[in-house]
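Retro notes (design track)

What went well: tokenization of the new backbones is finally stable.
What didn't: we kept losing track of which sequence belonged to which structure.
Fix going forward: every design gets posted as structure first, then sequence, in one message. First example under the new rule, 397 residues:
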């Protein structure tokens, strides 16, 4: 189990240049700025767009003074399960752009061959392989380093995340069983909603298979951070690359808690601004669903956020010592068994949980934290109950 640690200051974030290291954490980064790294491969597609190179494909080579060693060659295999869907397709494209990836394996129950053929024409290093249907799932997963699971049905107008449960819970259970059998050491990224329930389901399945490692099972909540950073920057007229807002709790409605008091750079909010921003971040998914008017949910922003988390994981696997992301994991930071908070990632998954984010919060945030716990607890228990019921049913057959 990862240790809980207190970090006195986190002064920076994705896109910020690392500051000279003294003590604690001096660089928060899902995605590092290109001026602090040297891209090994700069394809014509990336061109001179510095921010795009930095945020999507930072192939990092440490400066001479760095003690970390990060391999310059693409060497990681990533599988996307649900690759033909609304999130899976743009996510596949963004992962294909990463010079850290040697193989991009795309799996779905149908229509994945065309996606793979399309992506294979992009002149980036990753070889693209396609796998269709349950009979090919095992081959898709063997030997992969990171598994990303966006598979499932999208949310439609009037549908809550909880409405997705019965369909997506079964899908996640089946896919995680295959992961347990074929690549139990891989980092597992769960995107399929409701994340507050599907991550506990995955944990129970992995436990049953005897291969559960809580340091390598992640609920991807990066989109909440991406949205919080964007909305705060807009509200306060800040340079977006400078903004970092930790988001804790869960990944649905009021369980999403942006800690605006911990925003970097330091900025003050009125009570009205705090409530307005918090509610907008919590309901941002519904904002997109309604704007698409029945045509889908948040697929593009979700793919961007998921690609950021994949890149962070690959950087951690490569040996980068300064990788921090918010994610929904098994945790002892609160009295709940799972909780989203900022963590330090390393070669073996979660190295530590940044407990400092929950210290010295405002009265509004403290009340919101207590208010979210019953709903998050119920969602976690619902996932565990589903997994146990499924296991009992299978055992009785």
């Amino acid at each position: 189990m990862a240790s809980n640690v207190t970090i006195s200051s986190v002064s920076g974030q994705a896109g910020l240049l690392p500051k000279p290291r003294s003590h604690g954490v001096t660089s928060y980064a899902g995605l590092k700025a290109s001026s602090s790294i040297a891209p090994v491969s700069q394809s014509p597609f990336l061109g001179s767009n510095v921010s795009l190179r930095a945020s999507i494909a930072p192939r990092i080579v440490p400066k001479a003074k760095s003690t970390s060693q990060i391999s310059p060659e693409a060497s990681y295999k990533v599988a996307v399960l649900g690759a033909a869907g609304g999130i899976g397709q743009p996510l596949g494209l963004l992962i294909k752009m990463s010079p850290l990836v040697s193989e991009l394996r795309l799996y779905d129950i149908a229509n994945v061959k065309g996606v793979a053929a399309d992506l294979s024409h992009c002149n980036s290093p990753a070889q693209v392989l396609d796998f269709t249907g349950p009979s090919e799932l095992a081959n898709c997963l063997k030997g992969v380093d990171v598994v990303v699971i966006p598979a499932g049905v999208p949310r439609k107008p009037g549908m809550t995340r909880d409405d997705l449960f019965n369909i997506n819970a079964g899908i996640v259970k089946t896919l995680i069983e295959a992961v347990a059998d074929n690549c139990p050491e891989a980092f597992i990224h769960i995107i399929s909603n409701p994340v507050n329930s599907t991550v506990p389901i995955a944990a129970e399945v992995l436990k049953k298979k005897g291969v559960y490692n809580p340091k390598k099972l992640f609920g991807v909540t990066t989109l909440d951070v991406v949205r919080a950073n964007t909305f705060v920057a807009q509200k306060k007229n800040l340079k977006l690359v400078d903004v970092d807002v930790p988001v804790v709790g869960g990944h649905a409605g009021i369980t999403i808690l942006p800690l605006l008091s911990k925003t970097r750079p330091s900025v003050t909010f009125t009570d009205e601004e705090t409530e307005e921003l918090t509610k907008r971040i919590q309901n941002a998914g519904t904002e997109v669903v309604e704007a698409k008017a029945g045509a889908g949910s948040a697929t593009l922003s979700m793919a961007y956020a998921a690609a950021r988390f994949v890149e962070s994981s690959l950087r951690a696997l490569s040996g980068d010592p300064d990788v921090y992301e918010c994610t929904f994991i098994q945790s002892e930071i609160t009295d709940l068994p799972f909780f989203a908070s900022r963590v330090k990632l390393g070669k073996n998954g979660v190295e530590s949980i940044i407990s400092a984010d929950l210290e010295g919060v405002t009265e509004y945030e403290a009340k919101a934290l207590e208010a979210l716990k019953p709903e998050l607890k119920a969602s976690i228990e619902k996932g565990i109950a589903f997994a146990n019921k499924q296991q009992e049913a299978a055992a009785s057959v």
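Added context from the reviewer: The first helix runs from residue 50 to 56.
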